[in-house]
What does this fold into?
Amino acid sequence: MKAIRRFTVRPVLPEPLRPLSDLARNLRWSWHAETRDLFQSVDPERWAASGGDPVRLLGSVRPARLAELAEDRRFLRRLTAVADDLHDYVTGERWYQSHTGELPAAVAYFSPEFGVTAALPQYSGGLGILAGDHLKAASDLGVPLIGVGLLYRHGYFRQSLSRDGWQQEHYPVLDPNELPVALLREADGTPAQVSLALPGGKQLHARIRLAQVGRVPLLMLDSDVEENDLGERGVTDRLYGGGSEHRLLQEMLLGIGGVRAVRTYCRLTGHAGPEVFHTNEGHAGFLGLERIAELCDQGLDFDAGLEAVRAGTVFTTHTPVPAGIDRFDRELVARHFGPDAELPRMDVGRILALGMETYPGGEPNLFNMAVMGLRLAQRANGVSLLHGQVSREMFSGLWPGFDPEEVPITSVTNGVHAPTWVAPEVFRLGARQIGAQRTEDALTVGGSDRWDAVGDIPDQDVWELRRSLREQLVVEVRDRLRASWRQRGAGTAELGWIDGVLDPDVLTIGFARRVPSYKRLTLMLRDRDRLMDLLLHPERPIQIVVAGKAHPADDGGKRLVQELVRFADDPRVRHRIVFLPDYGMAMAQKLYPGCDIWLNNPLRPLEACGTSGMKAALNGCLNLSVLDGWWDEWFQPDFGWAVPTADGVGTDPDRRDDIEADALYDLLEQRVTPRFYEHGQGGLPDRWIEMVRQTLTLLGPKVLAGRMVREYVERLYAPAAQAHRTMAPDVARELAEWKSRVRSEWHGVTVDHVETTAATTTAELGTTLGLRVHVGLGALGPDDVEIQAVSGRVDEEDRIADAATVPLKSVGGPDPEGRWVYEGPLSLDRTGPFGYTVRILPSHRLLASGAELGLVAVPSEEVVEGAGVLMR
It folds into this structure.
């Protein structure tokens, strides 16, 4: 019979066990082994049944067992030690507190999804896992971060397979009372709430639920409250679900409601207010509008408010393809703002202008969330060096007249939170070598370029560790595969073959990620006969574990899943290749350590970063990957293989996939499998073990989320906080007025004449030429601009590469015609075809980049012809 109503009955813990409740509610347990071990000892069977979730465990353990533990002095000593350790962790000084320099009092970090633990399923893929790792690393480092997201009642979907291998989605309802979250409450005990105004006089209300991620609070907005109508209650129903308006409301709640939630949290707890707002992808971009509205309420106009907000905002883009960005019809956006809706005192036209694609190739009627994010942030970054380059090209239309390399988007390469993703066995091996505390510091704070202590671990220990992890994966795969086949309708009598699936002594390859077409789940199937030969090789077989979810609306992705599943169902190979449904954090934590090779074959350069290979590497797994994302940056033959890409084969996708699949098979046949199975005199695969050692020694320190967060602090958060402090109301007004004046008068800025002391078109290396330039500034003055000489090697079309810029100095003016004269040296510091030009940029002490306004003046064709701009 089905219940008509559901309650969550919470246990009453005996007084000596009360600290268990605090430990369960702080998600540090998800990456702190001693805390997890303590909970497991409460009731090992129920711990396993709860999926390793302390909240569910405490809700199911028998009162008699609790009473027994309350009298168990050994258990109570352990409980006290773990509780004291948590207290020290959340209150003690860490890296941030000992850092010299002016750092922000607090940073607000907004993301549409957060993958902190499988017990809080609020993530769909890499973006959410990255956000969760960002919070955890910030906590370990003591960074005063406040996370802001939404609480989805269904989370992302759960995946199963039909009998014929078609992906099926399920959306189990999450009860917040059974999750490790608590309601944020006002001083009188009532739930804290934020509200948004909707068209037609309606309201969208949301409660603020708080997850504690170590030292970092994560605020999650939940619209499923009684005060809302049915439609509004469903705004936070599913992650990435619903149509355009549903998605727009989610993003308004995240951005605008999120700022209001942060203000409420700081008011109620005394937490320092954020000086820096970091928006993780464009979904939270509306946060900038709310902050402008706050400043307008304090007396600033829109333009001054915009400058003040930009100064303290960091925007991270994660997508290398325009199709991955949220874009809304301008009329839909316009309807949700203005006098009859949200931000009523703000001009709707000004709001729309921030997101419109007003550049060549843009769609004039679409409101682009990433474009708004870039216009509202003075600092922006991609998530790997290659992705930064791709982003500068993709968004270059926002900075017309500048070469892509000058577009003000930098890079901070992603990292992963080692304590979450490193297998306990790997940690213990490190602790045996250098001690537990040093190992923990190395994995969290980082800071060294190499982990040389790995070199002292005996080969036998390395190899035994790898085999042990592979054996654990085999057990895990068989359990999951059996459960999957039962879901597909198979009876127990049909499943005896599963006991022989995978072999702990066979080279194991992992491939697990979301299933959009560009990640090419089925590239390995291009030549099925060759793949079968690899799987069934009599001396050097391979085995492959595959997992991944296609988006519910992506039938193309589902067809790829089905194609892979049907191949893996073939009785000839099903003991060597498996597809595991419902890929998530719990599966991933077993999968990464247990694989010998992590395979990644996206279409280059469509992978922004790709962090799964980093997690694998931290466990001694070698990467076999296309040179995309982070692998393009850090690949070395010492610790993996690069799959060649068919970049010059035209645009025929089938031909390209065939070539790259052939290259993948060649690598596996000729280089990867021989190295794994080739044993030296001591009976061990010495060369393979050395690659594992090099992976840990050289890659390990690089791929840490601790390294990533320290880069954000030093390169982006600290400068943004400094800019925020500088941008007092009067300063913001001054900058806004100056920008307005420069934009309106820029038409009068010209490069009128360029002359040089060079008499010929050849010169010797090391020669310094004199450059003299006459410019017109119109109504602007010399303090408003910088005149630069730009020089470097030139190609056949006279484009300057690797440009060097030198500011020129004013030597007089204005002359009777209103022209100013600038001079400076031009050093011929490179051989071969060499060229120079001159340009004028806006200049102000508060600009973060000369390209910030997207304004530049260069010589006209007539001036170029008379200037002799090339030296060959």
Notes: The first helix runs from residue 19 to 25.
